[in-house]
Amino acid sequence: MNDRFVVLVTTAAPLLHDSTRELASRLAARANAVLLFLHVIAATPGDEAMLHSGVDLASGETESWLKNLRPSQAGVPFRHRLELGDPADIVARFVRDHSVELIVAEEPPRGRVSELIWRGLAERLIRRVECPVVVGGPGFLRSHPGPAPLVQAPLKPAVVAQLLNAMVEARVDALRNWMDHAAESVGRIAASDTVHAVVSLARDDEPLEASLERRLLVELDEHQRALRSMGWQLTTARRRWGRTLMPEHGSAPSAFIRRVHDLGRSTSLPLALDQGAERLVILAGARVAAGAGGLLLFAFDAEDDFLRILGQPGPLPTFETYAFDEDGLMLSNSRFPEHLIASGLLAAEGEQTPLRLRVAEPSEGPVECWPLTRMAEDATRHHNGFDTRGYRDYRGTPVVGSWRWVPEYGFGVAAEVDQAAAYPDIAPAVETPNRTPER
Prior knowledge:
The chain is of the alpha/beta class. The chain folds into 3 domains: 4-143, HUPs (Rossmann fold); 171-304, Beta-Lactamase, CATH 3.30.450; 316-422, Beta-Lactamase, CATH 3.30.450. 37% of the residues lie in helices and 21% in strands. The protein contains 15 helices and 15 strands. The strands form 3 sheets. Strands 6, 7, 8, 9, 10 and 11 form a 6-stranded antiparallel beta sheet that branches. It has a 5-stranded parallel beta sheet with strand order 3-2-1-4-5, sandwiched between helices. A 4-stranded antiparallel beta sheet has the order 12-15-14-13. Helix 4 runs parallel beside helix 6 (121-128), helix 8 packs antiparallel against helix 12 and helix 9 (193-203) packs across helix 10 (210-227). The radius of gyration is 25 Å and the shape is globular.
């Protein structure tokens, strides 16, 4: 699953006004996006600037400055990227190849003459990219209050437990509410006179009147727009209307269909639309009234609600919540994709964890044989709990956490924070091993 980005692009190192960093951090938090610090050393191949830029890169000064940049708000995931070339070309290419919410431009000051004879980076980007382009400035900090102060460390284990339990309960409730609402909405649509009439006639092999079929399409298309759905599908033993939405890979689709038949309506876990799990959907389905033999499905983009709810910032640095299925397979994004790519657990930049990574503790031997973390082992046994003494997470990092199992949908949710962030003045009770996955 690809991340969504807010890109903060700079071209002059080591210059970045705090107000611009603050603006980009707030926009990334609001969009539930990764903040990418993209620094471009402006140069044209073959010119003298390219030579000097190469020397600058070799010295490591620019790269060191860039790597030390952090969001001004704790909890905002971030990455760094250093490029050499034309800034407008590089940013436009990144926007084309990735999901970018908006760009925040930081430019060096320009004199009045230079403003007259050439366009700034932000102005050129506006003409090149489809996403919004925002220019920060010193006035932003004067006109906006700073972020609320974070919970101060060190904290007692009981306070950490309260925070983690409160966060995991709140996010489980939010997920339940959304999933229940989606299933109930589809259930009401499935009970409509039009859907019932169409399914009943299709069951009896009766030819459908064109007016009835047109009415079905109009009504379900209107419901799709109202629900902000990606599409719908109505099936019977002999007919199908709408788009083909059911993913064909894995056991999760079959488990979802069984729940729909058993309960009358349900909502799925995130499902992959393709082999690479680049796009995830959540299906809400309902049986058409008993005896009619139909199934109505609506599809939703998993990023819009499920992943968004779990990806919100929390009260402590390094805090994250994520979901996983009965086998410990992650269903949502990690806050630490760079760590996972560096350790070989994710294959490439831009790749994320849903349906790719097990919540397993780094150990000896092949990755698929690694044991589930202490948290995931307990949660997949359908238990709720918390641990403030410390255990290793899927990165091998000592964390403290709280977890809940959601039995009606068959998944777990964890809230975790690095032990070092929760107890900065206390030596970790769990050591971090140095493991490289075997393939």
